[in-house]
Amino acid sequence: MTPPAGLTPVDVVVVGAGALGSATAWQLARRGADVALLEQFELGHLRGASHDTSRILRRSYHSPAYVRLAGEAYDDWSCLEQEAGEPLVTAVGGVDLFPPGAAIPAVDYVASMAACGVPFAELSAADVTRRWPALSLPAGTTAVHQADTSIVPAGRGTATMQRLARSSGARLVDECPVTGLVDHGPSGVEVRTPATSYLARRVVLAADAWTNHLLAHLGVRLPLTVTREQATYFRPPAPERFGADRLPVWIWMDDPSFYGFPTYAEGGNGALVKAAQDCGGAVTTADGRSFETDAEALQRLAGFVSGLLPGVGAPRRTVTCLYTLTPDRDFVVGPVPGHEAVLVGLGAGHGFKFAPTFGRMLADLVTQGSTGSDISGFATDRPALVDADFPLSWLV
Ligand SMILES: Cc1cc2nc3c(=O)[nH]c(=O)nc-3n(C[C@H](O)[C@H](O)[C@H](O)COP(=O)(O)OP(=O)(O)OC[C@H]3O[C@@H](n4cnc5c(N)ncnc54)[C@H](O)[C@@H]3O)c2cc1C
After folding, report:
1. What's the pLDDT score for residue 268?
2. CB of 40 closer than 6 A to ligand 1?
3. Together in a domain, 218 and 230
4. What per-residue confidence (pLDDT) applies to 2?
5. How confident is the model at residue 42 (pLDDT cuts 50, 70, 90)?
6. What are phi and psi of 40, to 5 degrees?
7. What's the pLDDT score for residue 51?
8. Measuring CA to CA, which of 17, 307, 331, 391 is 20 to 30 A from 39?
9. Bigger pLDDT: 295 or 267?
10. Cα 369 to ligand 1 centroid, rounded to whole Å
11. CA dist 2 to 34, 184, 185, 190, Å?
């Protein structure tokens, strides 16, 4: 099919200026590609998955492939810090906490890190509370400590990648929704927006909760579930008792699964303690979601946190945010079947720590057709994404 006349030619259109799209535009522009990064809302909006203060960066993962990729993520973050001339990674250490009979097996984490030569320590509940007095653990709880676990800034980190994309020559166009995609084969992909339509050699969809909206233009659909998650900031009477010297990043490896941070000064929240439930949110849609706090989920979280962190105080404010989950909770990195010029990048509710890595991998695929990173588990046509009966497994 011949593309219509009058389209604006561009090497690559990246759809979505969240963390993944911004990282991809930065990586492509710094390699000299002519990139347009298109965002439907204003930059820095609060409707997607990359806003708020903090995200966890960790090496402790449930498979050697993820542990290796996390290792690359640390390198990619330091590359980003160097280029930005701005510190972004705050190492505080992290503990994965396993109560007796935990739903998430500790052996997966221990074996995966051991297989990759990542140092860690297995601790008893007494070891943990001795070292981190802010924590109070039920008897029999064990822990896996990894010293490199860090906090990275969500909103500021995304803005930094946008700044670098722009300074490397990318065009950032916000308030510019992509309303259509037409694959013209060797002639390129037509990308329609209300203002301008582009003819791109390649398109990268980094649209998270809106991914299927865009794929629909190509007659494709992935089995994605969007949930509305929330994180809450607690106001302890004595915030100094919850600093990184007394409280590491923690993840409660059970069902329900919770996680949290020591106090972290980003965004003026230095006296607040953040915690959340992983995959505790209701199923929703990208455009139909509410921004209201889910009172039941808040009560569940507050009940748990008040036991784990005595003295943490009352909830002060809650932020909502979207997860876009694949059935196996693995990422999506690769071309759309039947539309090789269109790539998808999706973080499945745990992608922020890998944002600079997604950027590098997707830019590799665009500029070289392959990447040195192992993305064999993230294919768009893997069983979890094509088999309608594939069992859901979101707790990792
Ligand atoms: C509460 C919460 C806590 C989390 N904690 C962690 C953590 O500790 N560690 C971690 O690694 N990950 C974590 N994650 C996951 C992580 O934040 C996400 O995986 C990541 O931010 C996804 O980034 P993204 O750029 O793909 O998505 P988004 O930031 O949602 O960006 C997608 C963008 O695409 C735009 N878009 C969509 N459709 C169109 C269109 N048609 N035209 C133009 N633009 C369009 C949207 O407006 C949006 O800006 C957490 C997520 C949540 C919700």
Report:
1. 79
2. yes
3. no
4. 80
5. very high
6. -70, -30
7. 97
8. 331
9. 295
10. 25
11. 22, 6, 9, 10
Q: Is the CB of 328 under 6 A from ligand 1?
A: no
**One domain for residues 145 and 232:** yes
Is 315 among the domain residues? Answer: yes
24: domain CATH number?
3.50.50.60
Domain C-terminal end among 324, 359, 374: 324
Q: Which of 158, 280, 151 is nearest to 208 (CA)?
A: 158
| Cβ partners under 8 Å of residue 40, min gap 6 | 174, 175, 176, 177, 178, 210
Cβ(229) – ligand 1 distance below 6 Å: yes
| Residue 269 pLDDT greater than 90, yes or no | no
> Does residue 59 lie within any of the structural domains?
no
Tally of domains within the chain: 2
pTM above 0.85, yes or no: yes
User: What atom in ligand 1 is closest to the CA of residue 321?
Assistant: 53
Would the pLDDT of 251 be above 80? yes
157 touches ligand 1 (CB under 6 Å): no
Counting Cα atoms < 13 Å in the Cβ hemisphere of 21 gives: 32
Answer whether 325's CB lies under 8 Å from 50's CB: no
- Residue 77 maps to a domain: no
The pLDDT tens digits of the residues spanning 279-304 come to: 999 999 999 999 999 999 999 999 99
- Tell me: do 37 and 162 sit in the same domain: yes
Q: Is 210 in the pocket of ligand 1 (CB under 6 A)?
A: yes
Domain of 349, in residue numbers: 8-49+156-222+328-386
Query: Is 292 in the same domain as 336?
Result: no
Q: How far is CA 117 from CA 68, 123, 317, in A?
A: 10, 18, 40
Flag whether pLDDT at 267 surpasses 90. no
Q: Do 68 and 113 contact (CB within 8 A), yes or no?
A: no
Distance 243 CA to ligand 1 centre (A): 28
- Distance (angstroms) between ligand 1 centre and the Cα of 49 equals 3
Nearest protein Cα to ligand 1, atom 19: 351
Residue nearest to atom 12 of ligand 1 (CA): 350
Residues 288 and 143 placed together within one structural domain of the fold: yes
**Residue 372: pLDDT above 90?**
yes
